[in-house]
Amino acid sequence: MHWPRQKKKKAEAVAKHAELTADHETATADLAKVRAEKNPIDSSLRRKKKRPISQKLLKKPDYASK
């Protein structure tokens, strides 16, 4: 059971957290917009370079059979 003072502190903390979260979301959105303007290539099209399977792994019999 929370006492009145704790309830008040909790309410303040919740309000502050909500405010910070909103600020962060707007900042993230702004950053995404800026990045999109700077870099027209859609990020979904860019993929991580796939590394070739190392020769050491290929030599292991159980790996090559898969």
Task: Describe, in short, the structure shown.
By secondary structure, this protein is an all-alpha fold. It has helices at residues 4-38, 55-59, 61-64.
Furnish the topology, listing elements before pairings.
Blueprint: H1 4-38, H2 55-59, H3 61-64
Question: How is this structure best described in words?
Answer:
There is one protein chain. By secondary structure, this protein is an all-alpha fold. It has a domain at 1-46. It contains three helices and no strands. The protein has helices spanning 4-38, 55-59, 61-64. The radius of gyration is 25 Å and the shape is elongated. The model has no long low-confidence stretch (mean pLDDT 75).
Features:
66 residues; mainly alpha
| Helix-residue proportion | 55-70%
Continuous helix count: 3
Largest β-sheet summary: none
Strand elements, count: 0
Run of helices and strands:
HHH
Shape: elongated
Distance between the termini: 58 Å
Range of strand content = under 5%
Over all CA atoms, what is the radius of gyration? 25 Å
Give start-end ranges of low-pLDDT stretches.
Answer: none
Structural class: mainly alpha
The average pLDDT is 75
